Amino acid sequence: MSAPVEVVLSADSAGQLFNCAVFDPHSGSEFLSYRGGNTSSRSLTVLNGEYILGAQLGKNFINVWEIQRKDQLQQKIVCPGIVTCLSASPDGLYVLAGIAEAIYLWEMSTGNLLAILSRHYQDVSCIRFTDDSSHFVSGGKDNLALIWNLSSVVQLDSSRTPEPRHILSRHSLPITDIHCGLMGPQARVATASLDQTVKVWEISSGEMLLSVLFDVGIMSVTLDPCEYFLFCGGSDGNIFQVSLCSTSLSRDKTFQTDSDGNQVFKGHRNLVTCLSVSMDGTLLLSGSNDETVRMWDVQSKQCIWSINHKGPVTNAAIIPAPANMFLADSHPAVPLPRFSRHLNPSEQGDTTGSGGVCLRLGANTQVPEGTYLEKADELYSLMCAVTDKSVFGDGENTKVRVSELEEEVKTLKKINKDLYEFSTQLLTKPN
Amino acid sequence: MKSKKQKRQGDFQKVQLKVGKKKPKADNATNVNFKSKAIHLPEQLKHADSGPTTNRQLDIKDLLSKLHHVNSNIKQGALVGLRELLSGQPTLIELHASAVLSEVAALFTDKDGSVRAAAVRLLRFIAQCIPPERVAPFFPLLSAHLTCAMTHISEAIQEDALRVLDVLLEHYPGLLSQRHTVLLTNFLELISQKRKSGTGQDKAGKGAFSLTISTNRKVTAQQWRLTVLLRLGSFLQAVVEERPLEEGVISRIGLGMWAGEKGSVTPVDVSWEEHAFGKGKIQVFENSGAVPSPHSAYRLRPDSKAGGGMNKELCSAETVQGFAGTLVPLLLEIWVEAAGGDSVQTDSDHLLSAEAMALMFQILTILQLLRRLTPQRDQQDILDAWFRNSYLTDFKHHFMKNFPYGLREVARHKKKADGKRIRQQVAAGTVAGTNVEPLALNVTLCQVMVTLSLRGQDHIEAEDADWLGPIRVFIRETLSNGGKLSLKHLAALLEVVWRMIVTQRSRVVTDDLLQAVFVQYQQRNLAVSVRTLLLRFFSRLYIQEQQNHPHIARSRILACWLASLPVQLVQLGSRNPQLSAQLLETIHPAAARGNKDLLQSLQKNACSIYDPQEGCVVVLPAESQKRLVQILHFLPAFPAELLACLSQVCNTGRVSASLATMLIRSVHLRSPLSGCSSSLQDVPVKDVDYLSFFFTTLTGFSSEMLRALQDTDEDGLLPSSTLSPLSVFATTLEQFLHHWDIVEEVCHCLNTLGSRAQCFDVIQNAINKNLCGLVVVPDCVCAAILRCVPRLLDVNFLPSDTLLHFLSDCCLSMLNLLLQLEQSARKRDAVWEACFAALSTVPRLLRLVLQSFHVFDLCEEELPVLAQILSLLLQHTQLRNHMMANASLLQHIIQDLTHFYGGETREQWLTDLLYCYSVTLSGHRTNMGMRDIY
């Protein structure tokens, strides 16, 4: 069997069978499981494809597993308080944890605590990175979602307190979930809240683009990679699908009267706590407080399989399969450092205490490539070029082509005329 | 030949005239027996090209040409004529705008005063008729003539130029403000002259201009300066206002300081129902595709391009500095003269004459406007710093010396003597300037001075203390002396307070000032606008600045204010919904941030806010109700009394069903039973309270109400009978449906609780205890019970007999009610749905219902009803199997029924019943038969 491209990672709050487990996204069969403790909601994350980090429910430490050593708890990171949410940056350089009202930022290469951001007034409920790790969004029980620029948080001198880039304050009840789209700083963010709305924002400007009002509180939200659909998990167990780009070319759909049922995934009996869409946008994973994880086919809205857990599902996500996961004898490239518990900027300069050298993991992997803006421009021009060519054609080419065709018409007409004359001659010739 | 001759003779026949005979009439005689009448033409037909004229038969060309006449009387007459002509024919203005404007503008510098006055009047008239965009092409010409007049050597012309300026400022402020480069220097030259180069070097610090005093004007130098400064002030105002400002700046100025910010992207707002039913198509990303939207605030580097052509000149700090460098010394000189001129006469320095006060007020206004000329925040900071460095000592010395200022009482007779002068002032257009209140002067002074105080460092604070002290004292006294302030002054004062709080960074100062504002706030009988302003001040202070400034966050007064909000909300009741909404706008975020003072106060007043009779939650409009329900989510604890209130709020129908479900949900979410909140140390909703809340909401009637219902004797009461063991109290359709929606939500919440068996046990006990003994039961309660039991019942759980008996009574009564309901389909559907769900999920219930049909106890009229009920049950396919399980019982009943009825003719109902029965039975038989065969 070839290694799968994507896997499902899920955890529940009971932790009887396992803390978290890895499943096949197509069949729902279990690949691996990691034991010890249980994981609180929105706090299971994969670090750099080498470690799995999960915050212990109700305790002040984070469980860490090496991704290939399944059953063994590798170590525990003790934190200053109960961790309510956790997120590792996609480039594997930083880890963010929400501890009560504050957000803690650790650097993975040294384990230094770089910043404590206390801009939320109540517990932080969710933290998400953008896909290029340049920004992150945090949402709290104080109805606020904050967009932070990672570099401004990291590089500031200690005299100034870091400020969020944008404060999103249009929700009126606690924020339950956040989803960050692709495209780095140009991404769109979707926030779900108990006030029965889901709102979509722009990271770049902090403006709200869309607000959808439901009749139940929304506990989880996700976008598919193309951002065609917004999936919202309601507190009544329904998953609502909102289409974000209405194709105005109606394919004679008006006569079908199924508009009520066909945009809701029905099956869960309790709060839908987590949602995730596969890379190709065809599969939707949902985890619920009714202790099941379900996989849905987005097109047909059928449930493909469901797995019973022993407690309310706290985390469920479709992730690209890490390379090390199925190689039992592999090792993480870098050992996990000890996380410091105190903000101590003076230690960052001289590393005599640990004797280590400050090392950026991602430095050699970063080929100087274009920024997102450049890439987007390139893509856009490419797309424009394609459409221009196919629809309108090149100005020069069309002229040539038109003249060619005209000439051909002329010759054809001439031939026709000749033929006609010849035949008339033939017919009128007195025999 | 002959014929020709004869013809000729015929032509010239001689007529013989004879005496005594009448002379025959000639052939060509004129017939005069007609009558004529005169046609009166008042004026001749006009030629098409001549156009309309005035009373003096002058058309526009004549008039325009007369403007060049040497004689000033003719010129004036032409101007008057033009005005008359144009007011009669407004269309002419558009046609001849260029000619008229250029000719009129040329007369701004006319030698004769009456001509100039007429020209100004004409200009005023024209300006009223032509919108700014039409005038724009001629404006360079106009402004050139204006400049010419302003810099004219004759002083009378200069004075009249100011009136032209007035007109233009009034009607075309935008156009005029684009000409600031020329006009600003003109203003300077009106009141001053360039120093000679030699003296300029001596007084290098004093700028290149010195004040001029001319003796041959009709007015005093002070009055002249006042008129000029007034114009300068309004001109600067126009420059500031006509510029597209950046958002951050708007929010800091004047009344707009607490206005809401507006986004540049209009978000799409849809509700799920619209979307699901295909009504609203969403197209979200059209404005932000591959290219970032123009509104996006995301910039890799700041924009190097400046805005428009004129902004390039006046928005940067350097240019303003350049202008201010010449203007401010002049202003200071004027100030000194104004103050000095007075102090000679009186011994108390701070008392000023009205005129001096107006002058000073203008000076301060201009200083304020100068600072606002730069739109960008960073530029403003640079400018502030520059002002501080260059002029702080001067300002301190001159402005603060006699602060605060008062108005000197002038004796009556003196005023009379001044009558002439006053009349002149009126003529010069300084009316607005002359009656300046001392308060306005002092407040403006505060505003100007406070902008000079810098944020931050300690040593500067110590430096500033000597002049900030008096300002603080003044503000404190003004605000707390109990007097009512006008909206404008209060806004200015609050701006000063804001600035001082933010810059001073000291807790003492903050508390001191806030205390004064709070005193003002606590006054009774404030106007609504003033109250709202104060409220906004506090709420902005709390919401915006609190995070950055710990000294504000720790302020005792702010805490006190927050704590007073819920009380005010209760006291306000339904009297002023806008103000209540404003209060809620602060309470909501504060509650969301977990502010301790507010939450405590909220907790204390929760029962009165959420009172089902006259609490805010029922009397306010829907939007505020929603906020109140959302605030509920942040309450630290839900005591039993509060939950009782909430339950009643849900059921009294004064909040909408959707809001009630929202309320139920938020209580549900706060309970640890819901499994949503993580393990908290303190439990907001106790399990007992939670369950009793849900049970009360489920029934919709409190125990007292039910008890009271047992004794009443109302119309809505359907008496009990054999077929309807309970006496049903029919509620109104509205109430029934409202309650039906709520029951749905309650069932859903209870359904998601952890252990269903235990939950059902609790509900069963509650029903047994509270409802089973009742004789009169409202129909909505019956329906609710019948609905929730099958939904909550666990498969393995056996319900108790008491419950089942009660349920069967309910069911029977409801079925009986069902047959009497004709008017509303919705209610019938709901009742039937409830009965059907109960009967189909609990088979024992069906049996009990059937057993309770005692045919022999029924009277004649009830038989058809029974038959109808039975046929209803039989008709339903899903119930058929259950019915068949009780086939013998059913057969027995039907036999009894036919036997007992024993009528001669078979009634329709009996036929129906027997038909249903046979169909059901046969269907069942064939099934059985099929089964037997295989």
Number of helices of chain B: 46
Counting helices, strands and paired strands, the structural category of chain B is mainly alpha
Number of strands of chain B: 8
Number of helices of chain A: 4
| Rg calc of chain B | 47 Å
What share of the residues of chain B lie within helices?
A: 55-70%
Shape of chain A: elongated
Radius of gyration of chain A: 28 Å
Strand content of chain A: 35-45%
What's the overall average pLDDT of chain B, rounded?
Answer: 75
Largest interface: pair, residues per side = A-B, 66 and 52 residues
Can you list the strand order of the major beta sheet of chain A? 3-2-1-28
Q: Could you describe the largest sheet of chain B, including whether it forms a barrel? A: 3 strands, mixed
Q: Would you report the number of β strands of chain A?
A: 28
Indicate the low-confidence ranges of chain A by residue numbers.
Answer: 248-261, 347-357
Strand order of the largest sheet of chain B: 6-7-8
Q: What assembly state would you assign to the polypeptide chains in this entry? A: heterodimer
What does this structure look like?
The complex is a heterodimer of chains A (431) and B (934). By secondary structure, chain A is of the alpha+beta class. Chain A has helices spanning 150-155, 345-349, 372-392, 395-428, and strands spanning 6-12, 20-23, 30-34, 39-47, 51-56, 61-66, 75-78, 83-88, 94-99, 102-107, 113-117, 124-129, 135-140, 145-149, 166-168, 175-180, 188-193, 197-202, 208-213, 218-223, 229-234, 239-243, 264-265, 272-277, 283-288, 292-297, 302-308, 313-320. With 934 residues, chain B is an all-alpha fold. Helix content of chain B is 66%, strand content 2%. Chain B contains 46 helices and 8 strands. Chains A and B meet through strand 18, strand 19, strand 22 and helix 3 of A and strand 3, helix 14, helix 29 and helix 34 of B.
